[in-house]
Design a protein that fits this description.
48% helix; single chain
Length: 619
């Protein structure tokens, strides 16, 4: 029985077959001992066959490598032991331009576009041999034959050489230029406003933060600009014209702010900011801002139309701020103050005013919680006949805030803040509800002698489209007829184009409520005829009343007499608020004012103290 040796791992199948066949040949000598020369011929035939098979395998491997090398989309450069390129494929030529001959004989490191790139290639080749790394990979720039620097992904490796232990460097290149350009484009878009090309808010904040870390706050200035009434341009002329205007504004700002490392950015729709650094003085910054506002006032032409814009600006110079957010907040506060002052102007940040504003804003922010926690209460003031102060005409109900830290606050201190925070409607509903609840109590106690209640509608509630529904719900809730309620509004609310005051007043009058108009001059009075307002009472207030509280003023008396005569011609009952003294009341009465309220009749009362006040007057 023949016994064959077991093939070793790694033996090629063809080699095993050759060995077995020649082993059989050598073993089959039929008992004859072969001479040396014949055995040599047999072994030579065997060696030739093995060599022929090895050449075939090597030729096949070389053919496959050559085909891969030629067809590869990756650029490949083969180098000698000295690092000089001996061959390059067409893919590398396509990536770097030129011809293969241009690459032969050049050191791999010479392909780097800059000294840094060349150094990276040289270092990569050295690391491969020194640290026995399988490969070295990096993204860098190579030189294109005609187009200059080109971003690529480079891989360096070593191939076995001809002799034992020798290796040759090989360079593989992938074109990354399009990817790099795309990344740069995306990066640019992430940091720049696409409409104006200016840095956006993200880049501005990063720049401000970097500036704060590099320089003291005393060397940094910030200008925050906002266009006035830009919505009119967008709505009236279209977004396309608005975009053209914004690009024009960006160009003007860049042309004005050119010193102190000015960094101009667009932060929001029509908001821009300028960061300044260096030796800054407030007068110089203000001068630049004034120049910018003047430049912006010049029309920006879209076709034949000149579009005029104005801007308000908040300026911060040498602010005590440690974070970008604090700097921006200071500039925003100054900007808001400029807009409140009438727009189209600048305002310099003032720490003391800022502290005051912070206190106001803090107050406005907690109105909702104060209402929920019962910190508001009604304040009552009687309206009496001027000729007979004991005769009660009505009770005026207003709001007071019993603030836990600041004490008693009048409505003038918190209504403007409520309008900003959206709390006017909740406060107005509470005022109506509590006033009518008190009226129901008075009617139960005093019967027909109970006075009407007069409520001054805050502006936001006066123009609210749900005003009629709110009043009707509160009347029904307390089981009261409409004629127990007097609702007072003013000319600003009547003239507001966004509200439904005229319709609301007409419906409320139909419900039986008495409409009262606060009048500060003849213009307010004429609103009644112009809009056919269902007003039966007017309340004179402001300078027209105050002018008669001091020394004799014939002009003021003449104007007031003319106003009263006009009101009488319209069949209106005339009252006044802010009546200070008995003498003041007498002068108003002599001119024809029938009723009034103010310090001359006593201070305001709160809570159930109003019941005692009513009882004194009815008695």
């Amino acid at each position: 029985m023949e016994r064959w040796s077991v093939p070793k791992p790694g033996d090629a199948p063809g080699l095993v077959e050759i060995a077995r066949r020649w082993a059989t040949t050598l073993a089959d000598t039929k008992g004859v001992t072969l001479p040396t020369n014949e055995l040599q011929d047999v072994l030579l035939d065997m060696a030739r066959e093995v060599h022929a098979q090895s050449d075939t395998a090597r030729d096949a491997a070389v053919h496959r490598f050559t085909a891969l090398y030629s067809a590869s989309p990756i650029g490949i450069a083969l180098a000698g032991p000295d690092g000089l390129i001996v061959e390059a494929n067409q893919a590398l030529v396509r990536i770097l331009g030129g011809e293969v001959a241009d690459l032969r004989g050049r050191a791999i490191a010479e392909l780097g576009a800059t000294e840094r790139d060349a150094g990276s290639l040289a270092a990569g080749i050295a690391e491969l041999s020194e640290h026995d790394l399988p490969r070295y990979r990096e993204r860098l720039k190579l030189t294109h034959a005609t187009d200059g620097p080109l971003w690529v992904h480079v891989t360096l490796a070593r191939l076995p050489g001809d002799g034992s232990g020798t290796t040759y460097p090989v360079l593989m290149v992938e074109d990354a230029n399009e990817l790099h350009l795309l990344q740069e484009t995306l990066r640019y878009q992430n940091l720049h406003d696409p409409l104006t090309g200016l840095p956006n808010s993200s880049q501005f904040l990063a720049k401000l933060e970097a500036s704060l870390s590099e320089s003291p706050a005393a060397e940094i200035g910030l200008v925050y600009l906002d266009l006035d009434g830009f919505k009119v341009i967008n709505d009236g002329l279209g977004a396309g014209v608005g975009d053209h205007v914004l690009r024009g504004v960006a160009g003007k700002l860049c042309s004005v702010f050119t010193s102190h490392d000015a960094f101009v950015a667009r932060l929001s729709g029509d908001g821009f900011a300028v960061l300044l650094q260096g030796d800054l003085r407030a007068p110089h910054v203000i001068a630049m801002v004034q120049e910018a506002l003047t430049e912006l006032a010049e029309p920006i032409y879209v076709g034949s139309e000149g579009i005029g814009v104005s801007a308000s600006a908040g300026i911060v110079v040498h602010a005590q701020a440690d974070t970008p957010e604090e700097f921006l907040r200071a500039a925003e506060i100054a900007l808001h103050r400029a807009k409140e002052a009438g727009k189209a102007q600048w305002m310099l940040y003032d720490p003391e005013l800022d502290q005051r504003d912070r206190s106001r804003y803090r107050l406005g922010a907690v109105i909702a919680g104060a209402l929920e926690h019962g910190e508001f209460r009604l304040s009552y003031q009687p309206t009496v006949q001027l000729g007979e102060p004991g005769a009660l005409m009505a009770v005026n109900a207003g709001l007071q805030w019993q603030h836990p830290e600041r004490g008693e606050l009048d409505s003038a201190e918190f209504y403007p803040l409520a309008a900003v925070t959206g709390m006017t409607i909740p406060l107005g509903r509470w005022l109506l509800s509590e006033s009518l609840a008190a009226t129901a109590r008075w009617r139960e106690r005093f019967g027909d002698a109970a006075p009407d209640v007069c409520v001054r509608l805050p502006h936001r509630l006066a123009i609210d489209p749900d005003l009629v529904l709110v009043v009707k719900e509160e009347l029904d809730r307390h089981g009261l007829p409409g004629n127990v309620l007097r609702l007072c509004t003013d000319g600003i609310s009547v003239n507001d184009p966004h509200g439904e005051v005229l319709d609301s007043l007409a419906v409320l009058a139909d419900l039986g409520a008495t409409m009262v108009l606060a009048v500060t001059g003849t213009a307010d009075l004429e609103l009644i005829t112009r809009h056919q307002l269902p007003v039966r009472h007017i309340i004179l207030s402001g300078p027209v009343v105050d002018a008669l509280a001091g020394p004799q003023n014939e002009t003021a008396e003449h104007d007031l007499r003319h106003l009263i005569e006009r009101a009488r011609a319209l069949g209106l009952r005339i009252g006044a608020e802010g009546v200070r003294t008995r003498a003041h009341a007498d002068r108003l009465r002599d001119l024809g004012v029938r009723a009034g309220r103010g310090p001359f009749v006593g201070e305001s009362v709160t809570g159930e103290d109003v019941d005692q006040l009513i009882e004194r007057h009815t008695r």
